[in-house]
Amino acid sequence: MPELPEVEALAGFLRERTVGRFVVAVHVAAIGALKTVQPPLEEITGRCVTDVERHGKWVSIGLGPRGDLTATEPEEWLSFHLAKAGWLRWREEMPASTAPRSRPLGRSAGPLAVRVWFDDGSGFDLTEAGTRKRLAVHLTRDVREVEPIATLGFDPLAVDDPREQLASALGSRNQQVKGALRDQRLVAGIGNAYSDEILHAARLSPFALTGSLTDEELDRLAEATREVLRAAVAASTGRPAAELKDAKRRGMAVHGRTGQACPVCGDVVREVSFSDRSLQYCATCQTGGKPLADRRMSRLLR
Fold this sequence. Notes:
This protein is an alpha+beta fold. The protein has two domains: 147 residues, N-terminal domain of MutM-like DNA repair proteins, CATH 3.20.190.10; 145 residues, Orthogonal Bundle (Helicase, Ruva Protein, domain 3), CATH 1.10.8. It has eight helices and twelve strands. The strands form four sheets. A four-stranded antiparallel beta sheet has the order 1-6-7-5, with no helix packed on it. The protein has a four-stranded antiparallel beta sheet with strand order 2-3-4-8, covered by helices on one side. The protein has a two-stranded antiparallel sheet with strand order 9-10. The protein is elongated, with a radius of gyration of 21 Å. Keywords: DNA damage, DNA repair, DNA-binding, Glycosidase, Hydrolase, Lyase, Metal-binding, Multifunctional enzyme, Zinc, Zinc-finger. It comes from Salana multivorans.
């Protein structure tokens, strides 16, 4: 799933290429991806892109009034969340805008969900692999009309030192720190991968309870949150959209590296599996050398 660093880079990529461009056509290939009906998505045609923003893991494209060449303030926002298997595929030269309309609205021959064309011939596809379709697209007058955006927690990149905000967010309830970091209502933009990386850098167990964290552990967690995310953003910034997934994988110390050596201590990276995801960690760095129980398999990882 794209997380804060990749979505930040993606928003910057789109901002550079689309601000000042007019939308000339749009096609919805998967009607289930469209979560709003008023105004209809066809209303974005003839509108100029005024800005692109990131809200947590959401990208919002600001659109000026139709036909207005001078507008700098958006009248509507096209917001999308790529979910677990979604992505944006940019094309410098799009296929003819009449081609997709040969298929009935709402039916897709593949992963295509939404296609957008711009006046210079470029454009993008929003796609989603797999059978569990969760990609979400909204067209609203205000981004805060999108409930998951309106309820986002604090953004770790919006502050120089996230220590105070992080302590406040995690102190609102007593839960496992891994789950708290992934809760978008507490901290915006962090998902499964970067929560693993942050906890490894902070030398904390993913199962540590937020209510039991000491001041020193909170300091380490805040520092790790800042450094891991900033390093990932720096590694992603300026890359084409097609390269962002690979850049994310290459930057991981423990996430997705089960069975490999921890880059800090050399111990093996271990995994705990759940029904729909898994987490990775280093026992030496994070849990005092004790492997965590794999609750799905009902055994200790070795």
